[in-house]
Amino acid sequence: MRPVAILLVVLVCGSVEPRRAWPRGGRVHRGGRTGAATRSVPRCTQYLEAGEKYLDCQDLRLTAVPPVGWPEDTVHLLLARNRLRVLRHNTFAQFKLLKSLDLQQNKLVRIDGDAFAGLGQLTTLLLQHNGLRFLSEEALIPLPRLAYLRLYDNPWDCGCRLDSLVRTLQVPSNRHLGNYAKCSEPPALRGRKLKKVRPELLCPELGERVPQEPGTGSRDPTPPRTKPDATHTCHTYMFPKPLLDCGNRDLKNVPVDIPPDIVQVDLSRNNIKRLRAKEFVAARDLKSLNLSTNGLEAIETAAFAGLLYLRELDLSNNSLRYIQYGVLEDLYFVRRLALGGNPWVCDYNIHYLVYWLKLHPGVQHSGLECRSPDKFAGWTVQDYVKTYNGDCPEDNLLDQDNYGQEIRAETEEEEVKLLPVPLRVPKKFEVIRLN
Ligand SMILES: *[C@@H]1O[C@H](CO)[C@@H](O)[C@H](O)[C@H]1NC(C)=O
Ligand SMILES: *[C@@H]1O[C@H](CO)[C@@H](O)[C@H](O)[C@H]1NC(C)=O
Fold it and tell me: Whose CA is nearest to atom 1 of ligand 1?
């Protein structure tokens, strides 16, 4: 990844903030720089990244977008986690160059038909985690270039009024518009995806009953959710990188439905004890995965299947004692592996991890230290393995050419002590007898 230069941070309040009326009494800032006055005033931050101007007005308790005062050449406008409730006509009309608009995690309940008028360049519009029950398809008409639209975690009311929006989302060329958004109402459609629900069901002819879709019968239409769903449990951020923040949410499982374009997932500080096979296959662009501080005890063999582009994996501060044979084989491009704070047991099972690291010298790793048995506590695992090999020089375990044979030899010698050994050794030769 090419490091992107961040130029120019923090612009002094004057040029970023509205000069005249701030839409809340007592919050008007008149350009003074005295500490007390400035602190109570919302302050946006401006910066350039890859030549494009970002205006970061997140977490400022804003209840409205000021009609003038914010730089009109803003290309990315970040308004997440404010208190916007209503977007009126022409709210963003002065931002002719805007390519992305992040309005997630506000309190939006209403968006007027031409709230987005003038945004002819907009490609990304983030409206997730709001209180929207309805959005007119008209609101999208001024946005000919819109390619990404996030609508999930809003209480969509899948009735007649939503019909035109749902039909628009379902046009095949609108592939990235409105994925994961689900109906909250009416009860018969609760949990259905806007992308998938049959539009005829939204607005049945007057007097007609909402027909059940085949197979659902009359049971509770909400399928039991056994696993948390990423788009509702976690927060997504698109800038500067698509990040899914699922940190510290008491999750017991990896959430399902991780959006495929996410590059970074933070699952740290949860309660995920076990990683099961193929939990990340949908997240094919993932480059960084943080599983730190989960009490993780076991990782099943194909747990990292599909993570072809993963470069950074943080497994630190867990309860791992060894890595099962084969687990790391799906990680072709990993560059950094954080392993500290785990009770690594320096016995036979740890050899796979060391063997793999030896075969992948480009991987920077940290924290691989024996915690037990007492004899090796505090040693680096590599030193333990060297001693192990030193004790049995003829069994040079880490000589990769002989790896399979050595394992077999040792298994025979020390069979009793080493059971159970979950090691599967690739066969180098196989003699096939043909009768
Ligand atoms: C993973 O999360 C932990 C805890 O939030 C943090 O300390 C650590 O730096 C993160 N690791 C990476 C690689 O970002
Ligand atoms: C390690 O995990 C413990 C809980 O298991 C937590 O209290 C501590 O803050 C974590 N340390 C780091 C460095 O993340």
Answer: 290
Quick check: 368 and 380 in contact, CB under 8 A?
yes
Question: How far is the centre of ligand 1, averaged over its atoms, from the C-alpha of 290 (Å)?
Answer: 6
Q: Per residue of the chain (435 residues), what is the pLDDT tens digit?
A: 444 433 333 333 333 433 333 333 223 333 333 333 333 335 899 988 888 999 999 888 999 998 888 999 999 999 998 999 999 999 999 999 999 999 998 999 999 989 999 999 999 999 999 999 999 888 998 999 998 999 988 999 999 889 889 999 998 888 889 988 999 989 999 999 999 998 888 887 644 444 444 444 444 444 444 456 777 788 887 777 788 999 999 999 998 888 877 899 999 999 999 999 989 988 888 999 999 999 999 999 889 988 888 999 999 999 999 999 889 988 888 999 999 999 999 998 999 999 999 889 999 999 999 999 999 999 999 888 888 776 554 444 444 444 444 343 333 333 333 333 333 344 344 444 444
**241-418 CATH choice from 3.80.10.10, 3.40.50.880, 3.30.200.20, 2.60.40.10:** 3.80.10.10
Whole-number Å distance between alpha carbons of 52 and 44: 16
Instruction: Tell the residue nearest (CA) to atom 13 of ligand 2.
Output: 317
Helices (H), 179-323: 199-202, 230-233
Residue among 223, 130, 106 nearest 181 (CA): 130
Task: State the pTM of this model.
Answer: 0.57
- Closest residue by Cα to atom 3, ligand 2, is 293
Question: Which ligand number lies closest to the CA of residue 246?
Answer: 1
- The atom number, within ligand 1, closest to the CA of 268 reads 2
Ligand in closest contact with the CA of 336: 1
Helices (H), 270-380: 351-359
Nearest CA to ligand 2 atom 2: 293
Where does ligand 1 bind, in terms of residues with CB under 6 Å?
247, 268-269, 290, 292-293, 312, 314, 338
Mutate which of 271, 273, 293, 339 for ligand 2? The one with the most ligand atoms within 8 Å of its CB, which is 293
Domain boundaries, the chain: 241-418
**Residue identifier of the C-alpha nearest atom 4 of ligand 1:** 268
Q: Which residues pair with 140 in a beta bridge?
A: none
d(C-alpha 416, C-alpha 308), whole Å: 38
**Ligand sitting nearest the alpha carbon of 266:** 1
Alpha carbons 20 and 73: distance in angstroms, whole number:
20
Amino acid identity of residue 126, one-letter, is: L
Give the closest residue (by CA) to ligand 2 atom 8: 293
